Amino acid sequence: MAVDFFRRSGRHRYCSGVPSSERVYPMSTGTGTAPGVAPQPVGSDDLSLAVAALTSPALAEIVDLTAWVDAGWLYVANAGGSARLPVSDPDGPWEVRFGRHPLASQDPMHGVPLAAALADPSPPNERDAYPFAGRRLLSAFGDATRSPDLIVVHTPRHYWPERGGHLGEHGSLNAGQSRAPLVLSGPGVRGRGLRPGAARIIDVAPTLAALAGVTLPGAEGTALTELAGPGARHVVGLLWDGANCNDLLHLAQTGALPNVARLLAEGTALTGGAIAEFPSVTLTNHTSALTGVGPGRHGILHNVYFDRATGRQVIVNDVKTWHAACEQLRDGVETLFEAVARQRPGAVSACVNEPVDRGAHYSTFGLVRAAGNAGGAGDMGDYLPAAEGDPHASARWVQQSADYAWSTRVDALGLAQVVQLWAPGTTPPDVMWWNTTVTDTGHHGGGPYSDQSRAALRDADARLGSFLDLLAERGLLAETAILLTADHGSEAADPACRGDWGDALRAAGVRFRDEGYGFLYLGESVLDGLSLDDSAVGVASS
């Protein structure tokens, strides 16, 4: 298969480092000995101190809510009130403890369609919605050694460039940052056009498995059999990282994304898309999309987290660690590729530009591992095509943004691999997954609905068009089912909405380490070694 990209001599730098420092931010800690605050004795209640500090009205602009588990209950609280849910009953009902329920609306269709999102952008807590909140939060707390003690959820408008924040943001529990698109097309897909409703990211792997004629018996998600079933010779999953569902469907309908429109002409899309697992960040949801289980099961809790079993920080979403991300999967978790290999021994699977690749016969990061470079993909940049002159790239943003140019190069290599895998004269893969990066870059850089985010969607659409044209040329279009999704959504931050809750925690004398800016491990304040890359000092923020 497509191995020529990695057979050159000399020292290579595949993704020689993310070009913008905004993609990396340091961990925040507190020692419990803030100036003017008496040191707390061993065994003091850091949880109570932290909750009191975080739910102060002074932090309401940046803290949407905080959550924790105690004595069989899931608690949520903010400056306006508190509620709790029995751990044994993740779907409710919730008990309001005082004030207003911080998760009063859990409507998965909140902010749909585009006009509704534009009418109330990045809404405050009382006008927002938090789909499947109980199950998603409980999964984030479900790992015995990696889950935090306390979760802090940013308000949608919170802007934190000093810690890696962007104009376009995700990571929240709310609908806007959690909503990924979900488009299905081709043989085995039932119905045409847009359908009301929403699925979940954990439904993606079971649905792809159903299209491929296999099952994922351990999945928490459900195959969307009302939308699709067996019937395709080839099955392709596309992940456009960070793509805004409302905008993608709007642009497809208005002609700006003609190749997504081609998919819709032979398929269907849920207007509410697919709701990400929490946190709505990259590696957590790439993993959920390809395993069908939430972070409490698969173990990749965040882009970065602390593991008390080893006493070390784990960074999974970084150019130096992507190739090793699957080492963090918990026992008993099966990927889509492993399910295909187990149930269809003759089938071939391929995984392009995707870290969650375990079990795939061909994978980009399998080749990175085989190359044996200590820096993983970070040492192999010579394989990236030039961004300048790329026929599928928006020249304006390539010139203006180093991040955009880098992502363009990564995606150009992705397309080159796909073209080689499906080239005339080859036997194409039975199942393929293809991850696209520039869509996340564009949404971070400009925010949703911006010139930059829409340029990124158009670039991804152009590369999709090249693939669809190749399928048509080979007579495979009518034999190939395609699922298009993302790992999370995107919502606009407000540059005027600034602040860091770490200051309040330190002032309260809380002992903590804050990983990924929102996962608080209490009583842990020492910067420990890093499990995947001992030279790293931060965490990728995508």
From TrEMBL:
Lineage, opening ranks: Bacteria, Bacillati, Actinomycetota, Actinomycetes, Frankiales
This chain belongs to the protein called: Nucleotide pyrophosphatase
| Matching SUPFAM superfamilies | Alkaline phosphatase-like
The Gene Ontology terms for molecular function here are: hydrolase activity
Q: Which PANTHER family match?
A: BIS(5'-ADENOSYL)-TRIPHOSPHATASE, ECTONUCLEOTIDE PYROPHOSPHATASE/PHOSPHODIESTERASE
Q: Which Pfam families match?
A: Phosphodiest
